[in-house]
Design brief:
heterodimer; A: alpha/beta; seven-stranded mixed β-sheet; five-stranded mixed β-sheet; globular; B: alpha/beta; Rossmann fold; five-stranded parallel β-sheet; two-stranded antiparallel sheet; 7 strands; 12% strand; Transketolase_N (chain B); THDP-binding (chain B)
Amino acid sequence: MNTITPKPKLKTSAMIASIASEGQRTQAAPFGHALVKLAAERPEIVGMTADLAKYTDLHIFAQVYPERFYQMGMAEQLLMGAAAGLAHEGAMPFVTTYAVFATRRAYDFMHQAIAEDNLNVKIACALPGLTTGYGPSHQAAEDLALMRAMPGMTVIDPCDALEIEQMVPAVADHPGPVYMRLLRGAVPRVLDEYDYRFELGKAKVLRGGRDVLVISSGIMTMRALEVARELQADNVDVAVLHVPTIKPLDTSTILREAGRSGRLVVVAENHTTIGGLGEAIGTALLRAGVTPQFRQIALPDAFLDAGALPTLHDRYGISTRVMANTIKTWIG
Amino acid sequence: MDTSIKEARTTLAEHAYRIRRNALLMGEVQGQGYIGQALDIADVLAVAYCHAMNLKAEDPQWEGRDRFLLSNGHYAIALYAALIEAGTIPQEELETYGSDDSRLPMSGMASYTPGMEMSGGSLGQGLTIAVGRCLGLKRKGSDAFVYTLFSDGELDEGAVWEGLMSAAHWKLDNLIAIVDVNNQQADGPSGEIMAFEPLVEKMEAFGWFTQRVDGNDLDAVLEAFDAARQHPEPKPRMIIADTRMGCGVPFLEAREKNHFIRVDEHEWQLALQALAAGAGRTA
């Protein structure tokens, strides 16, 4: 006799996958709303995109300010060149696309047309690191390495909706080009529990702890905070230092925290091990002669799999569960 | 030809001659340079800088100015020659060309040179930046024009076609693009490296008001610039300028390999003499 087994629920490898964990508070389109709010006070702000307004939350700006919105079509080199031109004429373009297309297709245009002239262009890029299961075409595992290497570029990897809200006016106040990773859609909101305030170029201790110091940026800070709570049950005390500005790096805070003896230092990032936060911090520590036990939680130097995002975060060790286990193993 | 046009033409011929002469003198300083291109584009630059463009030579950042974006940064020697002729760069600075700490580096860079509106050199970027500048000028209600010069070789770059399409989409009637068709790029004749003809049909199909002229015929260039500025339709404007590498110095014009001309030491004087002779002057 045949028994009917229920079909397992399919996990999606959709391009836009949620990064929120179950039950997490979220906020809709924080970037779009923050930009609209700021644009009311800053008439020089314009929005530009390459056929991805709806997928970078820029459509919210476009609806309120259609005359300040420039749809450049699916042409990222043009997008960056034209942003440079507008900035030359006094506008402050907020440019959006996916991180892969900005950093891989239009690198030279950001380098030559924007960064070399130190233009006031803010490049906000969705799907940073591993935040889509759509495969390597859309996974920006190396965006921070590329953008860190560009002279004059400020590089930001925000954690949540609150940080994005605060980041938008802060980058507008900063003269010069900025690359910021963008979380779009329903974005988790966690940092308000930590009385947090984003300051460009500043790292912030979110919680103290005697055994492990996790230094993290972006969504990995959310994960680090969850790991810290989990490990508390095992009497492992985890401190979390959030570093949203990848460049320029707040080395004094990092050296101070990493230099406190006895703690394992773990850098956690949603980026390949090559050229991101981990290597930036490792180099800063060595230069200063600070040599704690040092570990990296990061994506491998590989073309990543397609699949459901939770599966991939487990597979590559950046989910809360795997990260907590990894840290437990390291501290024995 | 009526008297005023005749006078304008005579004056422009003088400007074009001096631009070529400036370029040769700079080339002599370094013993090398993109002289072929400087000589081929001198007539276009004479018309742009000494006739068409609204400029204040002494104030290169003047807000009301027409912008000139040199996409092909290796033509910098030609643009310096024109900026010297227009009075933005002092004549004596010519001797610093390509030297350490000079404001006149061998490839055009905006932060170095007064009057240089963009850093060229990575080819195929100028038109995209021009699109943004045109949009920016429209935002400000400015009636200034944006001119951009690029070479036929740059048509190999995909970004140029992104720019061509978008300029028409945005109805940029404040954009005047000039393509220098000298049919020479680094590896040989442009049309053999990547076939780009028929250019007029392509540009028209892309929605541009397009003129094709002999870029070394001053009258034709003058008329094309005037027509581009005065064209009534809400379209970007294209001037395809067919030019001759080395134009004005017959023995350089005759060289087969002239993308980057090697000029022997004794030849600079000969080139200046040939240029002067062709223009009915003494060098």
